[in-house]
């Protein structure tokens, strides 16, 4: 993936203000790399991930992604149909929050994600139970609605749903927030597995110890701009 001169602003109409979120972000990410981004809250980190995922539409710049279906595609100009396909089949996103359809169980969420990738129902059921067990989501919760889960349980389910699809590109927005040590170890194990399989990753972290054990490059952000890049591996 290659990001060139990405800029994004938000207009507050009621206050007649134009807020610059990120400016002139340029970065090249090779297949299988894991890029870590750090910085204070409000520095623009999440805006980069949401611009890649298509949640935000950017005013300036290009986001070139090497898609298995579309080839080189500019995510900054992709159609909604193209982005829906990419989110289902190629690009995963893990946030601190779990937004799902009501009355959908934890098992259904993960199984549905696997079925979207073309797996059989039998294999989807096996993989669902495997990853829910890996993240120690109790069996008594598998057929429950996530609205009843604790914050940590929701985050673990969110991670499980994204990782089980083995995406080509995985975006991680504070993936270890509210997780205990044992859960972080389980996340690390699966991230390492995905890296070995060639998944490219960009992640936002406040847990620097966790990040430093995984990322190949680290970028610091301040006031919407990259201020420093450190090669880790």
TrEMBL record:
PROSITE patterns: ABC_TRANSPORTER_2. It holds the Pfam family ABC_tran. GO terms for cellular component: plasma membrane. It comes from the Bacteria. Gene3D superfamilies: P-loop containing nucleotide triphosphate hydrolases (3.40.50.300). InterPro entries: AAA+_ATPase (IPR003593), ABC_transporter-like_ATP-bd (IPR003439), ABC_transpr_LolD-like (IPR015854), P-loop_NTPase (IPR027417). Keywords: ATP-binding, Nucleotide-binding. The keyword Phosphoprotein does not apply. One of its GO terms (molecular function) is ATP hydrolysis activity. Residues 1-233 form the ABC transporter domain. This is ABC transporter-like protein. The lineage of its organism: Bacteria, Bacillati, Bacillota, Bacilli, Bacillales.
